[in-house]
Amino acid sequence: MIDxxxxxxxxxxxxxxxxxxxxxxxxxxxxxxxxxxxxxxxxATAAHLGAALEALGYAVTRGVGGTGVVALLHNGxxxxxxxxxxxxxxxxxxxxxxxxxxxxxxxxxxGECVPVMHACGHxxxxxxxxxxxxxxxxxxxxxQGTLMLVCQPAEEVFGGARAMLDDGLYxxxxxxxxxxGQHNMPALAGSVGHLSGQAMxxxxxxxxxxxxxxxxxxxxxxxxxxxxxxxxxxxxxxTIVSREVPPDQTVVVxxxxxxxGTQGNIIPHSAELEINVRGFDNHLHERVLASIRRIVGAxxxxxxxxxxxxxxxxxxxxxxxxxxxxxxxxxxxxxDHFGAARLFAMPRLNxxxxxxxxxxxxxxxxxxxxxPCVYWYIGATAEARWHATPGxxxxxxxxxxxxxxxxxxxxxxxxTLRTGMAALVTGALAYMVRV
Length: 435
Ligand code: ZN
Ligand code: ZN
Fold this sequence. Notes:
This protein is of the alpha+beta class and 435 residues long. It folds into two domains: 2-201 and 319-432, Aminopeptidase (3-Layer(aba) Sandwich), CATH 3.40.630; 202-316, 2-Layer Sandwich (Alpha-Beta Plaits). The protein has 13 helices and 18 strands. It has helices spanning 2-5, 8-34, 43-55, 122-138, 160-166, 169-173, 226-244, 282-302, 324-338, 361-364, 383-388, 394-398, 414-432, and strands at residues 59-64, 68-75, 80-86, 105-107, 113-115, 145-152, 178-188, 192-194, 197-200, 202-211, 215-216, 251-260, 266-267, 270-279, 310-317, 320-322, 343-345, 373-381. The strands form five sheets. The protein has an eight-stranded mixed beta sheet with strand order 1-2-6-3-7-18-8-17, sandwiched between helices. Strands 12-14-10-15 form a four-stranded antiparallel beta sheet, with helices on one face. Helix 2 (8-34) crosses helix 13 (414-432), helix 4 crosses helix 13 (414-432) and helix 7 (226-244) runs antiparallel to helix 8. The chain is elongated. Bound molecules: zinc ion (2 copies). Residues 120, 122, 155, 183, 404 line the site of one zinc ion (ZN).
């Protein structure tokens, strides 16, 4: 099937389709960029995307898992290929100086007014998805199967993927045979990066309440001091990575918040911790979370805490394991279309995504076997900037460039939009091209 995609006429047709779609995609990108919306509030974004996909002939359903959009194109017998984009923006004040920069204000979950910016390029992902939808609709004589386009809400808070799955994404619509997604990165615009296997980290943030019995600072014997318990907890948690995690595994345990008390002569009633855990192996990640609970519980008991500690999962996502066979298939399709010189080996970063829930039957809660996932990276740094950046490798240069979530991050180069569209088209055709 891959060989088929190298047919010059199909490659030419894809490029011609990208060319025809480009102007509208760029306009859509700038519109979305100027009007970013916070997680689960992507109403206008979803309306734009739904309308654009409907106009292309897709069967569109809105409001899946909140603001999610699902667009289907049935085109005969064949595999169901899911292409996923995300829609949400971040509470950041944009500093890019672009003429279509955001000045939007949104209301966050705590009811506070915050500036909002597409600082992670989800506007780019969704625009590229619409562009790819246009090209694939045009080229429908060249492929067969079912195309399932998914615009998910709330990636940044790791909520949107599961919300859509819980809302019956795979039962109401279709269960894909392969799930494909992409993310922009500070790499040369026009390039595409791949990474097989463990690609992004599982991440959990736990809130912990340690109970004490407060009182006067001069009479500690009549109190249970949660500050001392919390101090032991913080220290003891350091032994998880150093003593329980095999040395060849990457795990991070960070206590990013520790709060107790109001002033020096009062022993407080409780202490609050927030603990962030990251790692690339989902089973090991579960064991680390169990170790945290065990250590906190035991330290509370050791410190005479009157009540068991309370744990709250503030956010969580699982690790992304890029399917080896699928990554190779997509990488070859991209190499055939773009040329090997435009591909790069993506370095493993400690970032996280909720994309892997779409493939993980257990954590995604959709039953049956896992669905293979392939997630690649599209370069988003303008050529002149890239060549002026010190460093020999992509990994070295990245350390000198703004990353996603920076108020200066501006990934919407023309080459990035065009490549993002073509990468989705050729990725899908690697599974669907008519033989
Ligand atoms: Zn992000
Ligand atoms: Zn992102």
